[in-house]
Description:
Layout (H helix, E strand, L loop, with lengths): L4 E5 L10 E6 L2 H13 L3 E5 L15 E12 L5 E19 L2 E8 L8 H17 L8 H4 L5 H11 L4 H9 L3 H32 L2 H18 L6 H14 L4 H16 L6 H14 L12 H11 L4 H16 L8 E4 L6 H12 L3 E5 L7 H4 L12 H9 L5 E5 L12 H9 L7 E2 L6 E2 L5 E6 L7 H4 L3 E4 L5 H19 L7 E3 L1 H10 L7 H20 L6 E3 L4 H5 L14 E2 L1 E8 L2 E13 L4 E4 L4 H15 L2 H4 L4 H5 E6 L13 H13 L2 E2 L3 E3 L2 E2 L5 E2 L4 H10 L4 E5 L11 H4 L3 E5 L2 H10 L2
Parallel strand pairs: 1-3, 7-12, 7-13, 8-9, 9-12, 14-15, 19-20, 22-25, 25-26
Antiparallel strand pairs: 1-6, 2-5, 3-4, 4-5, 5-6, 10-11, 16-21, 17-18, 18-20, 23-24
Amino acid sequence: MNEKLLVLIINDMVIFPNNEVRIEYDNTYDKAMIDIVEKIDDGLMLIVNPINDDGVDLTSFPKYGTLGRLKLKMSVPNGKTRIVIEGIDRVEISGIEEDGNFFKASYSQVNIPNTDNKDYFNILIKSLERYISKVPYMGNAIMSQLNNVDNLNDLCDLIASFLPINYEEKKKYITTIDPLVRAKDLIEDMNRDLKFVELEQRIESEVEKELDATQKEYFLREKIKQIQKEIGDEGNKDNEVERLNKKLSKLKCNSKVKEKIKRELDRYDSLNSNSPELGMVREYLDWMFNLPWNNYTKDTEDLVKVKSILDSSHYALEEVKDRILEYLAVKQNTNNLRSPILCLVGPPGVGKTSLAISIAKSLNRKVAKISVGGINDEAEIVGHRRTYIGANPGRIIQGIRKAGTTNPVFIIDEIDKMTKDIKGDPASSLLEVLDPEQNNKFSDHYIEEEFDLSKVMFIATANYVEQIPYELRDRLEIINISSYTEYEKLDIAKTHLIPKELEQHGLTSLQVQVEDEAILTLIRNYTKEAGVRELERVIATLFRKIVKKLLLEKDIVFYNIDNSMIEDFLGKKKFVYMENSNEDEVGVVNGMAYTVFGGDILPIEANMFKGKGNLILTGSLGDVMQESCHIALDYIKSNMELFGIDSKIFDKNDIHIHVPEGAVNKDGPSAGITITTTLVSLFTNKKVDKTIAMTGEITLRGKVLGIGGLKEKVIGAHRAGIKTIYIPHENEKDLDDIPNEVKQDINFITVDKYNDVFNSIFGGE
Ligand code: ADP
């Protein structure tokens, strides 16, 4: 008995030993599985075909399968992943268990009898040769491989893999163990085809001789039907219409939808098989049959269970978790409760999407996920009309079909990144989707029939709340998730990421422990991000290397990773933690920025030189920031005496303001007081302490107005070694959100007007 491997379930193709197959897929389930196989099992996996169409569960697991190895994996341009799997051996499967979303099973080699039966070996080769020479749709590529085969078992597998028979018949050849039985079946299958080909040829010559054109067509049609019947081709329209009619009678949907499907089905039936419309109608039917018109999952009612699933999947994020529990609690007390439309807003990697997926899991709902980032066409949301060539339903209906239920958790990513142009305004279409007054009758242009979206729980995600189209923002319950501090990241790593990655890599804490200091090094020197996505990747890389070492260097069975070992595993540090150790200077002051990496300091520089009072701005400043520079300068000019500045400075000099650091988006008004302080420092020739940073908008009259993103900015400044921060008085309330370990190191000074900043920084000298 061998150790357990992951099981790949395939329901349209059979992989035989010594046979290589190419598969393309686009579903995340298979993707996730293949990723694990690739990482931890040396590419090995077990491949099984379900016994019937209903899929596989622990009670109906096939007894036999193929041990296979992943030989190649690549992404192809249509967005799918292509893999090549090599079949190694026919195996007996036992000890099956569910492992997360997947099955794992142990396996053993199958004892194959009668492999050296020479008589059947020769008969089979002869039958094959005859088959290749007579059957026009069988190629002869198999011939070049016959030389590699010297026993009946391998020969049967080779022929079974090449023979043009359907999937159900192929399945029989993998689950039948005795090669003698398989050889007999193969001979029988080949003979049946041969007889059919002979019959076909006879009809053809008869037809040629005796019949006029119309009769000939009739016969040929009959022949096609015969052929389709013989090879079990489901494409036969008559059979298909019959099958679909049966399916329709069982379909769970309202009568209006049923009537519509019936009409389309009749139309399909009446269309000539050469009609260009045929494919379009067939595709429409496919959509209509596969939408979950009336298929629900039942929500978990046990609040304690929901809470424990959410807590075990994500650290902190209490506000969202509470909101979900409140929803469930109220739902239990009322009958018909609308789902909330949550919008999780925060920088990348802070857990927005994964938390939404956990919410689905905790509620026992399916997940649908789409991204609306970059879309500018409302047809992407509500579909194209069917008259349009290449028409498709919109992404909402596509998501619902994939989820397979009417009440999934539906994640709409990047809701702040839609654009609006001549093709329409996707935001207003999305509004219809989200509007509880209308969405029980959502109408996709392609589907044409109303679909009830009122049971769906929508969760949108966004990076910046200001960029969510206003009309949408109004409908959403915004929940902010902000950057994590180093210490929060440390906790997340210890409680979630490390246990998760250990498991993914087949490791236990008895084999690997990572010291806190080492985790902090990963956080500080190998990642630069607001969330923990990169950190998760770095931990995965570390564990991958450890798995390899454990296998190669068998004498070491335990690794305690301390700080000094990190470089050996991961190479040189990528980000060196910069203590703000530069000298204080005249005309340089630290501002604070909020970027996708979280917060950061943003030093602003100013210089002056002989000129005529011009203001030069560099550093790719946005419009609003450029305005702030003008406001700062004009405010100083009108208060020269107060600041002790000689007015001649402005007559004789040009002034240059520059904001270095290319990667930061430099717009918004919040650098106002920093620009002002930089200029005052320049004009008064007084240095500003490098451990000071500030943020706040300034008005022409010197009032200091509030700003956004304070938490991120402060966390970033703390990381850069800042000790004193000036903030607008309006933002004092936001200090409550800042973690204590950051707050205790920083002296916050709140200001209402610029004069307060001036007095505090320059006043004492
Ligand atoms: P986002 O959608 O915000 O960009 P993701 O949901 O993709 O971020 O999260 C990236 C990774 O970080 C996921 O693997 C997730 O499990 C992990 N993660 C993020 N926040 C947390 C948290 N609070 N607790 C545990 N894991 C987290």
